[in-house]
Amino acid sequence: MFHYVHILKSTKSGDLYIGYTDDLRKRPMEHNRGLNFSTKPGIPWQLIHYEAYRNKKDAERREKYLKTNQGSRLLKRMLKEYFYQSKK
């Protein structure tokens, strides 16, 4: 079983959402159905990146890190081309 850290981008506002899930197919659909209070205003959401981990604690630690300032900067460097092309 894998544990996933996923990054969603709101096609409405451009906001990013960083989350953790055990079911990568189901969780983004739940966000788009408005089942999550914090992501409801940004519907629709698009999955732009995910990382898979065998250990749950590793995935939770990575999610927490990506939500920090330093983690956010790393994410923007990792997905530099994606963000550059989405501005066009």
TrEMBL record:
<protein>
    <submittedName>
        <fullName>Excinuclease ABC subunit C</fullName>
    </submittedName>
</protein>
<dbReference type="InterPro" id="IPR035901">
    <property type="entry name" value="GIY-YIG_endonuc_sf"/>
</dbReference>
<dbReference type="Pfam" id="PF01541">
    <property type="entry name" value="GIY-YIG"/>
</dbReference>
<feature type="domain" description="GIY-YIG">
    <location>
        <begin position="1"/>
        <end position="76"/>
    </location>
</feature>
<dbReference type="InterPro" id="IPR000305">
    <property type="entry name" value="GIY-YIG_endonuc"/>
</dbReference>
